[in-house]
Amino acid sequence: MRKLLIANRGEIARRVIRTARRMGIETVAVYSDADRDAPHVRDADEAVHIGPAPAAESYLRIDRIVDAARRTGADAVHPGYGFLSENAAFARALSEAGILFVGPKATSIERMGLKDAAKALMKKAGVPVTPGYQGEDQSLQRLEKAAQSVGYPLLIKAVAGGGGKGMRRVDSEAEFADALIAAKREGEASFGNDNVLIERLIQRPRHVEVQVFGDAKGNVVHLFERDCSLQRRHQKVVEEAPAPGLSPRTRQALGEAAVRAAKAIDYLGAGTIEFILDTETTDENGDNPFYFMEMNTRLQVEHPVTELITGTDLVEWQIRVARGESLPKCQEELSVSGHAVEARLYAEDPATGFLPSTGPLDRLDFPRESGGVRIDSGVEEGGAVTVHYDPMIAKVIACGPSRDAAIDRLVSALDATIVEGVKTNRAFLARLIDDGEFRSGAVHTGLIEQRLEALTELPDASGPAAAVAALALTLPRGKADAPTLFSDFPGWRMNLPARRYVDLFPEDGEPMHLMLERADGGYRVSGCDSSEMLSGRWRDDTHIEAVVDGTPMLAIVVFDEDSLEVRIGGEARRYGTSAAAVEGPAGGDGSVVAPMPGRVLNLFVENGKMVEAGERLLVLEAMKMENRLTAPIGGRVVDLSITEGNQVSEGAVLLTIEPAD
């Protein structure tokens, strides 16, 4: 392998380029109109333009990728993940062109590409599968009969689905037909296949997956398991390795089942066998049973946590296996050291149901990659998050000798991450990872939904964060020396204690008027819930070492033009420094605005219709997700400005609801 083309973009393209360069392999990037100035284009030795911004016209065009490889003389192609990575036709097209595919055989992709066929194959190989229906008869009558046999609640899944698309939970027979239509429509739109399967719903499942690797000589190993249970909208948010709380028997059984699954399809390269673990049921040994869910015939987004606990470079393994070498290690040579946790930093707003946020990245600062912290990102300051691709900004990963140490490092790394220009889930992630339930290892796929209110509520505005905010506005920024009377307060008073008055305007609640008075080598703060003793110093431009009522804490303070945000141990609180900084957007409570750019997929109302608060108004499709907008208040629909099929911009007023009275 002399020259490698990466048929992908963003973070994974940069990740592959790093390893290829270390191995002495030249690299070729491909890019769409939207990615002309993207970092992965600059990182590669060569770059080829492949089309307009929409993925269907660029990154999903097999002919253009193959042509780019031919024109640049690339003798191999790495597909990354997503896009064409699990496309058997792509693997075949490369083979026919005499170009090496850094991935599995086309036949392996096909055999695991459809969930129903894959489950049948796994069952034959002795891998446990969830009870359900995977038949070819897709008539409503047959599927309804299957649903009755499986029992409610159940899951409908698109057979070609992934990432939660084409999946619906059904709790009763009355809901089945509507859920089936929605799942089939989404499966057809996303994957060109509207067939579905039905399976029993595991009520409190964990999502545990096993990394497998095979070579051309028939050797297959597993690199242990990952837990990916923390999900929203059926999409992973936090991953860790190894999975917490499993018995040695369960770990061994998972690994052995994964290897059987890979050998059943003569697997080559990196793959992941995904299992559902039933936390509410135990076997005769007291262990939780697990069931095969699907196989991803590619490298996973969360592969870094496996690399960190095994000391491997999985992209290097992929390249070596693709060019005919044996696996670098056998099963007996692989072992686990420490723990690793990864959080996906998205441009999205947890307060609005995790709707994507688009716009420029005005500021983007990550913590230094040291002390067990790793950052994998495909964007940079001055770039933008667009509607065309996944809104992930970065993967923030931390490892340590123990699970608690890895979590502590990840919380600190998230606290130190600064993103301005788009809304992000940074604060949500920090609070989630530091949550008591997650720390205890009591993880399951419903944890985020179950804890959502607590995880998204704002911390106490008048707590320690307010005192630190006042200190940050009082001390000269960036001064690491101990404060003095003259450096702190320009207004000196003879025979009176020095005082400073600070006004803070929380995002919610009443303005706070604080007074800092010099006392006992620090300050007494008045105006919080109670009078607090406070001292501290700037460590650098963003970190304050503070002591609040005898409790030491390291706070990160991020300043904006007319506000500041205080981050302490995963908690974040923003304060305006003027009343104007916290004034809400114009418009009454009845205005319904587009939370993101998108297309109006369905419209359920018309001008003059009476609606109740919470009633469904429309479905907005954006970033391959369907988002339902509901009525904020009850009343009459007026000023409806859209029709089905319309493209709308973020913030556009779509309709207004006029209160009935």
From TrEMBL:
CDD domains, per database record: biotinyl_domain
PROSITE patterns per UniProt: ATP_GRASP, BC, BIOTIN, BIOTINYL_LIPOYL, CPSASE_2
InterPro entries: ATP-grasp, BC-like_N, Biotin_BS, Biotin_carboxylase_complex, Biotin_carboxylation_dom, Biotin_COase_C, Biotin_lipoyl, CPAse_ATP-bd
GO molecular function, one term: metal ion binding
Domain ATP-grasp residue range list: 119-323
Keywords: ATP-binding, Biotin, Ligase, Nucleotide-binding, Transit peptide
Cofactor(s) this protein cannot do without: biotin
Residue ranges of domain Lipoyl-binding in the record: 579-658
Segments forming domain Biotin carboxylation: 1-453
Protein known as: Methylcrotonyl-CoA carboxylase biotin-containing subunit
Organism: Pacificimonas flava
